[in-house]
Amino acid sequence: MKLALIGFGQAGGKVVDEFLAFDERTGGGFVESAIAVNSATTDLQGLERVPERNRVLVGQARVKGHGVGADNELGAAIAEADIDEIQGAIDRIPVHEIDAFLVVAGMGGGTGSGGAPVLAKHLRRIYTQPVYGLGILPGTDEGGIYTLNAARSFRTFVDEVDNLLVFDNDAWRSAGESVEGGYDRINREIVERFGLLFAAGEMDEGDHVAESVVDSSEIINTLSGGGVSTIGYASETVEIDDGLLSSLTGDDGFDEGTATNRLTSLVRKAALGRLTLPCDVASADRGLVVATGPPSRLNRKGVERGRQWLEDETGSMEIRGGDYPLPDRNEVGTIVLLSGVTDVPRIDQLQQVAIEAQETTEDVRAQADEEFASLLDTGGKLDALF
Ligand SMILES: Nc1nc2c(ncn2[C@@H]2O[C@H](COP(=O)(O)OP(=O)(O)OP(=O)(O)O)[C@@H](O)[C@H]2O)c(=O)[nH]1
């Protein structure tokens, strides 16, 4: 499916840059336009692939290109104030060519977590295409302010987009990795999963067209209905002997039964392995299973069995399935998109943080009101004395 990508804040911009690299490397063809928005000049300068004229600096009047320092209310205020600057870049997108917008942001900082929901709301008001979010949750060790920002912004972002795809940094950290090295690896993991899904919905006419190829409407239908989505992915290397031996024996190593079993078990591995946002698979409302790899190894029975297994697992009647043939690969893979998931421990934890923060704010306010009232009272008594 064709997307207009908009990265908001540092993480958002870097992930959009990585999507562009993936799209170029794989010939995926799903990126129609790419924009990066930030309140920090250096973050915009650090990008490699987003075209310079599509890098929008916001909030110059208030923060002078220095970022908002994890203040997400300021991030939101800046986005509101400078929405016309962002719109200037959006005006260059050939909107009739795209299937959807994708707004990408880290939820823990200030610029992206504050600004992305403001932008999503604006886009939904103006355009008819769906507006999806890709929200990146902070690691739990990053500190209170990041968690609090994420807790607050998550709720708002879910409300403002047609569907929020989520990646949890916390579930993907590796011990002993530097922060920067870690992000580079994690960003590749992000685009490998989401990029493969979007590319799957973007097969050209004349590409290897099988009857069961997934198209963009299946992705859109799976995401419609809103809520939160997560992705699982599993793959396996396959031997493809299309050389001398196969021409002599007429056998290229293909066996129907093996292909079916392989695909069915890859669907299970994808759904039950590490998801971009870990959750209880049974709580998904809708799902999509996509099999990728050399056409000779994609077999309809395997995808169908995997799809049925996911139907049983989720109790949902809305599990779609299809192929994304990739002729030059020696790898068979499956992507499982789970949409409308509700049983997500990490989100419960964030909601708890938001509730506690709210209560603390209310307590502090109540205490301040009490102190103020008693001050007035004391003032009254003093007045009476004099
Ligand atoms: N996956 C991933 N996460 C990142 C990356 N960079 C930062 N993050 C996460 O994003 C959050 C911080 O958001 P940033 O995007 O750096 O902040 P910002 O939106 O630019 O806002 P300010 O820096 O506060 O102005 C942190 O919680 C990190 O977990 C990245 O390259 N990849």
Automatic annotation (TrEMBL):
One GO-annotated biological process of the protein: microtubule-based process
Superkingdom assignment: Archaea
Annotated residues for binding of GTP: 10-14, 110-112, 142, 169, 187
Family of this protein: Belongs to the CetZ family.
Function summary: Involved in cell shape control.
Molecular function in Gene Ontology: GTP binding; GTPase activity
Gene name per UniProt: cetZ
Main location: cytoplasm
Boundaries of every Tubulin/FtsZ GTPase domain copy: 2-225
Family annotation (InterPro entries): CetZ, CetZ_C, FtsZ/CetZ, Tubulin, Tubulin/FtsZ-like_C, Tubulin/FtsZ_GTPase_sf, Tubulin_CS, Tubulin_FtsZ_GTPase
Keyword terms, alphabetized: Cell cycle, Cell division, Cell shape, Cytoplasm, GTP-binding, Nucleotide-binding
UniProt GO cellular component terms: cell division site; cytoplasm; microtubule
Organism: Natrinema saccharevitans
Full protein name: Tubulin-like protein CetZ
Subcellular compartments: Cytoplasm
CDD domains per record: CetZ_tubulin-like (cd02202)
